[in-house]
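Why do we care about 3D structure at all? Because function follows from shape, and shape follows, mostly, from sequence. That is the central idea of this module. The next example makes it concrete: a single protein chain, its amino acid sequence, and then its structure expressed as tokens.
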Amino acid sequence: MTAPEVPVGGGAVAAVVSAGERTVAPAVPVGGGVASPLALPGGRPTRRRRLPGPVRAVLAVLVGAAVVVPLAGAVQPRTPAPPPAVLAPPTAATLDETYAAHRANAREAARMAERHGDRGRAAADRALARPERHLLAFDGRGNGLVTEVLGELAGADRVAVLVPGSDAGLDTYGRFRAAALALHERLTREAPAETRTAVVAWLGYETPGTVSTTVATTDRADRAAPGLRALTDDVRAVAGPRSRISLLCHSYGSVVCGRAAPGLGADDIVLLGSPGTGAGTAAELGTRARIWAARGADDWVEHVPHLGADLFGTTVGFGTDPVSPAFGARVFAAGDGGHSDYFAPGSTSLTNLARIVLGETGAVSHD
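And the structure:
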């Protein structure tokens, strides 16, 4: 992401509802997205507060703009790409064929982007089409979607799924992948000899823009939730029923994980730099998974007001702070890092994330 990030619930609301204070943070390269960079389906809002009239009026303008701005942007030419390959759900036996089909699609997307004159997108697509890349999914249209596996997923004992936040797309995918690579390297180094590990980088939904109103509502997360549930089911089918799956959800990605939580086949859900999940407590997420939360000491999300309001059929704000005692998550140490530092090599947060994924929960450090 090239533009600065506005710290509002994973996006834009803090600038409106904080006490006259507007903080601008740099773009964020992590899983949680690439940049700000990670409410229950059918559930009822929790701990909703009626906002003051002036605030509601400003938010109403922002929500209205969320409709107008995308329509205005729709007239811009988009880089062409083929439709994604249509395949049966992957299995351990068909995994190589799945990878090959999506690599072929990425190669064709690169050719189309090159002919269109979009050299940056063509380069990103060509990188994904390399023989060593393991793509569970690929869609080169629009901002682009991709799901990539690092390691050997078939028969993996421990699998981490990274869920990004705002401003993630094919053009910036390398930064999200760097977070997945850092975790994969740590797991490979620290896993016991008999424990097989894999990391899945899931850019499987249309992420909101950081400087937009969509990042302050649950709409994109609502649309993403079914895809995340399906991905988790596919991962378990390939890895095997005894595999343990941890979802690492950054920034707005934690809203996605919150929406997907009921019926989600994960063993651990980790909320990193989260503006909230839309639920009042961890128990209200309605999942059997253990819920973890962490926030770096220098993460601007600390200053995001934890509010929730229903306006014109959409939810603005994400409710209770996941690292607060009231939420009830297992809070762990993330060190002194900022919003982009949760997967930084050598960091406290990455150390603890690896321990959670490997099941070494007794070794996880706390502030």
